[in-house]
Amino acid sequence: MLLGAVLVLLVLGGAGPASAHAALRSTDPGDGTVLQRPPRAVTLIFTESVGLRDDSFRVLDPGGHRLHTEDAGHADGRSDTARVTLPGTLGEGTYTVAWRVVSADSHPVSGAFTFSVGKPSATTAAVAAGPTEDPLTAVLQRIARYLAYLAAALLVGTAAFVALCRPPDPAPLRRPLVAGWWTLLAATVALLVLRAPYEAGTGPATALDASALGDTLTSRPGVLLLTRLALLVPTALFLARTSRRRERGPLTTAAGAALAVGLALTWAAAEHAVAGPQVPLAVTSSVLHLLAAAVWLGGLVALLTTLRGSPDASTVARFSRVALACVTVLAITGVYQSWRGLGSWPALTGTTYGRLLLAKLAGVCVLLAVAAVSRRWTGALVGRAPVPEGERARATEALVPVGASPRTASPPPPSAASPAGPAPVPSGPAVGDEHADAVTAHRRGLRRSVLAPVPSGPAVGDEHADAVTAHRRGLRRSVLAEAVVAAVVLVLTTLLTSTLPGRAATEAARSAPAGGVLPASVTTIPFDADASGGRGTVQITLDPGRTGDNAVQAVVFGPDGSLAAVPELRLSFTLPDREIGPIAAELVDRGGYWSANSLTLPLPGTWTMKATVRVTEVDQVSETRRIRILP
After folding, report:
1. In what order do the strands lie in the sheet with 580-585?
2. pLDDT of 13-67, one tens digit each?
3. Among 53, 94, 294, 315, which lies 20 to 30 A Cα-Cα from 31?
4. In contact, 226 and 220? CB cutoff 8 Å
5. CA nearest 190: which of 229, 134, 234?
6. Is pLDDT above 80 for 315?
């Protein structure tokens, strides 16, 4: 199960780079602006707090040479800004700024932008912002993150199973406890070592750099990983002590709960909860969510281990109640965290975060369905469980025939002289015979009533044993299915924590484009395709959709949604506020689409775009749309 989940993680994790969680909201100077005077500093504002590295900024002059700048810092005491001071004198031309920071939830993000002093240069220095992540380092980091989640669930869930479900023989559960502890230790060490190359976007070999490792140990993600390692020491002592003592009091339970909360905080303080609105409530919700998931999913492994032997029915019933409580906590905290991460309903299907969330929700629904089957098997097993000896004895005492006292109904203890003889009876033949008959009748009735609820005989006993065995086997299969689905849900959870939340993605889309990759402006205009009333569309793309030179591409679709060939397509742009235009785009038919390599839009603002489509040799139709051109 573990190897299969890791393979799924490798396939999904290798599909593409993880989306960074901090998005660049704006820059000063703005990307592509032309300044009359050189700026004294460069300031970047992000959608969430960011951490800075020694090489967070690289500023290149028009010739491509790196300028000497001071260390970057946060501006005005705000953790969501980054500022670097520039040299006192900057010559005329275009400057390129490449930046790389670490978002609040420990994921790196990078980009680049330009600004000009005096006038733009004829050529711009070619600079790459650097890869967001190295593929091999990213895969190793994701595997370590997944194993850390899995180990924490195994460790916390098994310990909680022992404390809350009280299995008669907890000895078989020592192995998953030890495996969970060592796996969490190894995964945390791997995350700590890989932290520096992950932030720098370099290969795993750079993890051996002592200076980079030293910087990691003083950063917030590094401190949290060190805290997790420190908590594993008292956790090991706690597990060793409780495994030697059968009696576990409230103080022991409280100590274990405190250690579990501390471990959960090392995740909650390093991921989505610390970025965005309502941070204290979000951290609390994240801790409860992690603990509920660990108690449920790790408890499944503990229950599966217990079912391999001769499980106690009361232990299974207790876990069923604990699992139900965990599901309730997961539902409440999951709804809150989903609302906080998405921010809007369109983000549920319009962002990668939302689509992953839907996949996780589907996995959880499957998990709940399998859990419902396990719960029915649990009820059947508890109903078929044998009656304990103490309860059987109490039931025997309660089955005395009505009208007889226990003293007269039960045979008196045999005397020393006559071990098998009856008790003395009053003198007189009539009374003695009557008393003897009553005692015999009571014995016969008691024997029938006692033997009725406890089947005897080889045939009935075998049938009862077979039923109990069948119920245990069914419960074991359903719990195993739960564990497999839970492993897949953990994979989706790991991917979800490496994806830009929908709320941040929507905010970044509304912000000015930055990062060196400028999104294109895409506009769709419907038009009457023919006299029968069919409606076609023309999709027009301006790249980058900003002032200056733009590339234009237009694709015409017919009423059935397929590509349509038209005799002519014309585009023109007008800025009414400034009385500029119309500016015509010289479109050329490329065989399937129309394009223009260069269209110059000199000013920002709301332009009116007019598309004229000639549908036949003599008929044409014109439509207009208003588009926003950024500076």
Report:
1. 580-585, 568-575, 605-614, 620-629
2. 433 333 345 677 788 888 778 888 888 889 988 877 788 877 788 888 887 788 8
3. 53
4. no
5. 229
6. yes
How many other CB atoms sit within 10 Å of the CB of residue 628?
10
Q: How do residues 278-312 score in pLDDT, each as one tens digit? A: 888 989 999 999 999 999 889 988 988 888 776 67
Per residue in 231-282, pLDDT tens? 999 999 998 887 665 556 677 888 899 999 999 999 988 877 777 678 889 8
Rounded to whole angstroms, what are the CA distances from 236 to 156, 172, 239, 263?
12, 17, 5, 13
- pLDDT tens, position by position, 330-366: 889 888 888 887 777 777 777 777 888 888 888 888 8
Q: What angle do CA 425, 427, 430 make, to 5 degrees?
A: 90
Angle (CA) 459-465-467 rounded to 5° is 105
Strands 588-589 and 535-543: unpaired
Distance CA 521, CA 541 (A): 6
How many angstroms separate the Cα of 22 from the Cα of each of 192, 220, 497, 506? Answer: 21, 16, 13, 12
Q: Can you tell me the distance from the alpha carbon of 613 to that of 616, in angstroms, rounded to the nearest whole number? A: 9
Whether the bond between 582 and the residue before it is cis, its omega within 30 degrees of 0, is yes
- On whether the CB atoms of residues 554 and 540 are closer than 8 A, the answer is yes
Question: What proportion of the chain, given as a percentage, has pLDDT over 90?
Answer: 12
Mean pLDDT, the chain, rounded, equals 75
Cα separation, 209 vs 216, whole angstroms: 11
Q: What is the number of other CB atoms lying within 10 angstroms of the CB of residue 245?
A: 9
State which of 144-153, 202-211, 312-321, 407-416 shows the largest mean pLDDT.
144-153
Task: Show the tokens assigned to 34.
Answer: 């032309």
Neighbours of 548 (CB within 10 A): 14
On whether the CB atoms of residues 588 and 572 are closer than 8 A, the answer is no
The dihedral sign for the CA sequence 200, 206, 207, 211: negative
- 526-542 pLDDT, tens digit per residue, is 777 665 556 777 878 77
pLDDT category, 9, cuts 50, 70, 90? Answer: very low
Contact between 70 and 44 (Cβ < 8 Å): no
What gap in Å lies between CA 35 and CA 54, rounded to an integer? 28
Tokens of 214: 């030293």
Strand partners, 110: 100
**Is the dihedral angle over the CA atoms 352, 356, 361, 366 positive or is it negative?**
positive
Determine the Cα–Cα distance for residues 172 and 178; give it in Å rounded to an integer. 11
Answer whether 536's CB lies under 8 Å from 557's CB.
yes
Give the residue carrying structure tokens 């004895």.
393
Asked if omega into 544 is within 30° of 0 (cis), the reply is: yes
Question: Any idea what DSSP says for residue 134?
Answer: -
Confidence of residue 445 (pLDDT cuts 50, 70, 90): low
Please give, one letter per residue, the 3-state secondary structure of 342-402. Answer: HCCCHHHHHCHHHHHHHHHHHHHHHHHHHHHHHHHHHHHHHHHCCCCHHHHHHHHHHCCCC
